[in-house]
Amino acid sequence: MRLGHTLLLAFLLLVVLPIALLTTLAYLNSGRALRAEIHHRLQQDAQQLMQRIDALLFERVENLRAWRDVEVMQDAQVGDVDKRLARFLASLRQGYGGIYAELLFADGEGRVIASSDQQHIGRPLGLDAGGARAVTLGAVRVEILPLQACRVPVQHRCLPLRTTVASRFTGETLGALYTLLDWSEIEALLDHVTETRRVPPHRLHALLADGEQQVIGATPATRQLWPQDGRGRLLPLPALTADSRSLRLPGVRGDFLLGQAASTGFKHFPGLGWRVVVLEPARTALQPVHHLLSVLVLLAVLTVLVVVGVALGLARYIAAPIERLAHFSRHYDDARPPRPPPPAGVAEVRALHHALADMTARLQASRRQLVQASKLAAVGELAATLAHEVRTPLGILRSSAQLLQGDAGLSPEGREMVDFIMAETGRLNRLVTLLLECGRPREAVLRPMDLNETARRSVALLEGKAEARGLALSVHPAPGTAPVAGDAEQLEQVLLNLLLNAIQMTPAGGRIRVQVAVTGRGATLTVDDSGPGVPVDERQRIFEPFVSGREGGFGLGLSIVQQILAQHGAHIAVEDGPLGGARFIIHFPPAAGPAPDRQGGNP
């Protein structure tokens, strides 16, 4: 597959997959968040509705408890012959505006003595008292009878409440006072939920269940939705836990989100153990999330179309420079490397251009190093040959010249010629020594040492030579010690080579300075002079064998320096110095152990 096609496919995958993932996550998280918010809202609705119902029941029970102690209730002892009690009950019912379907007083035999409806006086009570639940308010026992049909208009239900009335004279029970609470007052509270939320009736349902989970109240829309038995009664509420958040009804499509609240009572009224459940169809409640999904899908499709167009352009923009680089790499010649193509494309491709240029530069540097290594190998072979072939005749010549120097009859011209022989044989002997050191350097023995001590000793050895040439030679050691792991003899040779070069290159009246510093990354040794310096284009070549910057030099000293430092894990560089000449700076790695005392060197 071509690079352009690969990039296009990669762009599409990198965009389409995240968009699909983000769309899915946004839809799921939004749905979860909306479900939680709807559940919280429904829970609040159920709690508020249950509190209103408990408050209403508390008021009705409190009314019944207060009325039993009214003096007119004592008329029940004489059968309410003057109808005062009946008129009192009628006025109460009228004053509460229809909250009560009927108020009545019945004797111990269940016969109505007084009633807010005159036509019921003298008749049997006709109320089912089975399963009544009693509550006590202020030492007064009030019973709540089961919900049942009232004797008022057909299809009307009421909730009977009763309490006994005792004679103030004898303490005997005169009968029971009944209040028939119009159940439509409770159902009105259920309907009030949809009115408060201002949603259509089919969007919100509310129902009330007793302690046996039997549904005893519901909104009209809920009655049409809720499953019923064969006699048209609503089926009991399914088993719900405190963590239930949804409900599925048989025969109804989709599930319902729910909020529920159990009766907790009101003030000192303990409640009847009833439960309110508020339902909302999940399909309609989650419409905003479905709409969000449609919008996200549309945006995803538009984004993919835009990405395809952008990806085509980017693929061409990236692939073309890379193809030029590939062409350059295929035709790269190690002997005469061509220049890489100019940087183009995105930042990464431009970085690739620069990396390729750096790689070619490193290849050229490696070739130079190979050339230098071959030179060093040649030096080694030459050194071995010279050591065998040159030093023996040199020794004979030098010994002969020394014998001639002791001849008293030697003419001045002859003595001058003998001095020439001694000087030149010494020079040849030094050349052979340098060749041996350059071709076969001794392996360094690394031990903890103080670089300050090496600097001081090297400067002390060459102070006389520097003074003879009119130069100021100084040393500036680091505070305390400068610990390094090194071979003291070889490092002293390194510093002597650098100082001798500086002494020979610096004109009279100049300065040479040696500095030692310690940093967190190791120690640094610096040699500065006020000589002519090293040209920039020569700074890499001066470390090669047989490259010398002064007349009469062999060009091996700095090559030996570099080899010794390589064994110490150190590196040397040359740059412009603050004294106007050259600066040779050597960086040593941190020492592995503590430095020896000032008298220690290489034991």
Write the layout of secondary structure elements.
Blueprint: H1 3-67, H2 84-95, E1 100-106, E2 112-115, E3 133-137, E4 140-144, E5 148-149, E6 157-166, E7 173-182, H3 184-197, E8 205-209, E9 215-218, H4 220-225, E10 246-247, E11 256-262, E12 275-281, H5 282-285, H6 287-330, H7 347-389, H8 391-405, H9 412-439, E13 447-450, H10 451-468, E14 472-476, E15 483-486, H11 488-505, E16 511-519, E17 522-529, H12 557-567, E18 571-576, E19 582-588
Parallel strand pairs: 14-16
Antiparallel strand pairs: 1-2, 1-7, 3-4, 4-6, 5-6, 6-7, 8-9, 8-12, 10-11, 11-12, 13-15, 16-17, 17-19, 18-19
What form results from the Cα inertia axes?
Answer: rod-shaped
Q: Which range best describes the helical content: under 10%, 10-25%, 25-40%, 40-55%, 55-70% or over 70%?
A: 40-55%
Measured on Cα atoms, how large is the radius of gyration?
56 Å
CATH topology of the largest domain: Heat Shock Protein 90
The chain-level mean pLDDT equals: 80
Strand content: 15-25%
Given helix and strand content, the structural type is alpha+beta
Described by its quaternary structure, the protein is: single chain
How many β strands by DSSP? Answer: 19
- Overall number of structural domains: 4
CATH superfamily of the largest domain: Histidine kinase-like ATPase, C-terminal domain
Give the C-level CATH assignment of the largest domain.
Answer: Alpha Beta
- Count of separate DSSP helical elements: 12
The first-to-last residue Cα distance is: 67 Å
Largest sheet at a glance? Answer: 7 strands, antiparallel
